[in-house]
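Subject: sequence -> structure tokens, single chain

Hey, anyone have a minute? Need the predicted structure for the following. Not urgent.
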Amino acid sequence: MSAGFLQSVMEARRREMSLLSAAERESLREAAIHARRSRSARFREALLARPTAIIAEFKRHSPSAGAIRSGADPVAAARLYHEGGAAAISVLTEPEHFRGSLGDLRAVASAVDLPLLRKDFLVDRHQVFEAALAGAEAVLVIVAGLNDADALKLLDAAHLVHLDALVEVHTAQELRRAVAMGATLIGVNNRNLATLKVDLDTSLQLAELAPAGATLVSESGLRTRAEIERLQSAGFRAFLIGESLMRAGSPVAALRELQGAEPVGIKICGIARVEEALAAIEAGASMLGLNFFPGSPRCIALPQAQKIAEAVAGRAKLVGVFVNENAAQVMNIARTVPLDLVQLHGDESAEYCREIAGHIGVIRALKAGGVLRPESVAEFSFCRGLLLDTPCEGHGGSGRAFEWTGVDWNVIRSKASPAKLFLAGGLNAANVAEAIAIARPDVVDVCSGVESAKGVKSVEKIREFVAAVRAAKGAQQ
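Reply:
Had a minute. Here:
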């Protein structure tokens, strides 16, 4: 590959698109507008929803590396990427040099529910319409191969059909051009097309010039967690990785390593006895909930809470659960037990939560399902954690799950950041794996699902629940 390669492949794409008749062009445009009329762009949103957002790329071949995985199945690869926790998938659709096609994009779109990027050498807005019809949520716009007028046509087309545009740059001049065009999702290609050399300093240098508010994506040559952490410290939110994942013996394991994956945390709530606390810790729980709400059958007296704290001795975080309690009383109990965190499960305002958060970490419980508004999630994002629970007349512990598939988890994670996401409501050993696969929470919270009777924990059920969490796909975030 060389700088001349870029121009030659762009010219080949222009010749190909010039063969479209006026009727075909109009048909593509109208079909794309119709297909996307009630949709909204979710590619950038998905990247912002993850602490480490990996755009996992499917490609069989490249001009620089040659054959990578000839004959690879896009659907099989996409499913592994999804299992490994990729935030999005990039699909090469250029046929001659990368052995890709729009058919690959359509196949992936039908197989996984992740935002897809059409990665190709776009020169004509009708390629954007093709991408929309094939299931893409975003397109790549390469500044180096386009003049400003043509690039703007592509950006306008993407806007028309509600796609995000990843605007790729390699130099400071290209970055300035992208910014002038209004680009907010900017990809920095670490590969010098003239020399084929990859230098991560390209990303580091251009990050210093990027405007505040831009979502930065580093592309090419990324292989290790250490490289990602270095780029994150410079302000990058997402990382497009292809060759190393395509060559990996286990793409799932490789993705989890790149994300610095940590196991899903487990919180056992409603602990009332020392033996329950110790059994939960031995099983693998990382948090224990002590309920101080007088209206709960699991309410615990202060002296008993102190006994549990003494027995636990720092082996798990203790979380005090309160409902519309006086702030001074919350802080008094937190100091006396002592507690590591407090969970506010009533109608506490953001102002109240901020007051408490000035002294101890706060987990704010929110009612999920149809009553949950993204604005409410964003309002409490300053908290240490946000716990989504089943709407009910009481304050948790209903034993009922809400409809997990009815929540747009990418939106919720984006609005909640940087708070950790806790999932509660009717969880048990039989359904927690499904819940994790759908919601991908940071922590799962169980109460009645591990009880033999109301307010009495079952050691056997606790062990079964923890085992189910650890065995769940997606239990590494």
